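Sat 14:20. Reprocessing the chain from the morning session after the first attempt stalled halfway. Input below, unchanged.
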Amino acid sequence: MAIGVGALLTACSSTAATPLPALTGPPQPGGTLRVGLVGGGAADTLDAHIPVSTTDIARVVSLYEALLYRDENFDLKPLLALSATPSADAKTWTVKLRQGVLFHDGRTMTSRDVAATFARIVDPENPKSGAASLTVLDEVAVLEDYLLEFRLNTPTATFDDSLGQYALGIVPADYDPQNPVGTGPFKYKSFTAGRRSLFTRNNKYWRDAEPYLDELRILNFSDDNALINALLATQVDAIGQVPLALLEVLKTDPRVNILNSETGMWLPFTMRVDRAPFDDVRVRQAFRLVVDREQMVEQVLSGHGTVGNDMYALYDPGYAENLPQRVQNIERAKELLAEAGYPDGLDVELVTAPIQSGAVEAAQVFAQQALAAGINVNIRRVDTTTFFGDDYLQWDFAQDFWYTRNFLPQANNGSLPNSPYNETHWQNPRFQQLVEQAKSTINPTERNALITEAQTIEYNEGGYIIWGHPNQADAYQRYVGGLVSNSTGLPLSGLEFRRVWLGGQS
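Finished this time. Tokens:
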């Protein structure tokens, strides 16, 4: 891939490709932004509440808005809610809504729409992906048009964090995902799963002047090579999730800017703890010990990332910083495998796909490193549609990607028996008890101590290998303005295209 991209880049960097001046002055209205992203397929969706792939998330962030959101510094900020205030016992959260917000069809958003949205998400007959973080929710009570209460069955001191998830976009009570209506900066125009999405400016958007663009096109690409070549041929204006190994190459093109953001995102290897050989904790520990994490960061991320320690929620105040940094120890890995009944090593299949930049490369590096401990890794590469198809969450040994979250929302999404994405099939009663206790602990010092203890259990016994936290790298034409670094892990400024504008193009 590097050879093909380099050849095209050389052609595009000839004397005809002169640098454009930096954008100055206020944002300019108008124009069409063409965004390229790898991934997606037949399972792509416009549904506000079941996004999986990056292209799904891009559509969700463009069409819908949650009550709260994480900004570029990972701070929790108001969005459709002006405030979310807990009662003294944290069992009731009072939410005051922003007034004057209109849905794309011109109707006013009120508390009744919020109540209907959450009823749809937690519908026991068809729960959506956000339902796992809302198990404490008993009732959404409408008090006034712009005032409502979230009444919980358990004191939950961090419930506002649960409200700040992109998969909890507010929709009208009669919402139809086939004809999607939200409050977001862009309106639905057309959609072809696995290929493209077309949105137009929401002229009734509640933010002054935004969005600046007339039109937004989100284009699916099958691989990184096609994505980067499209940028260099000016077929797209911005691309997300650039392979970190290619950043230095792209920097040589004077027409291209790079956005390189430090994040808490992670690309784990997932070991299914209820199936052999990973049902033996000694095997899971051995697999973690074969990883040379610094080498992984250097080879897979070209050094653009931080070394991981088999724990997520890097920015959580309860993150278990006291735990020793896990390093490669081949001899101890061999001992553990022998104790588990594999004195001569073992063969495993690792399912990988281009689900995120660096995923396939990480699989290849892991396979090389594991050989030293007698582990023969047979890589099975599938396409993204197959990976996220019927067997998703059923693979014995695979990979995934997660964006930045704090510990409790992340545990709700992936580490509890009722989590929608419990890809490791992890069930640990003490871990569950600590998570539930942390949710209801109002004192932050006490809550953080519980989170640290829960993380320690998963660090020792869980099914994740979290080798590093990649930077999020994107690239865009120099005539694109408004993109800023973003620590959430979502590409292209958190996919907030409302703030993007176009300057003079050539």
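Residues 68-163 form a domain with the Dipeptide-binding Protein; domain 1 fold (CATH 3.90.76.10).
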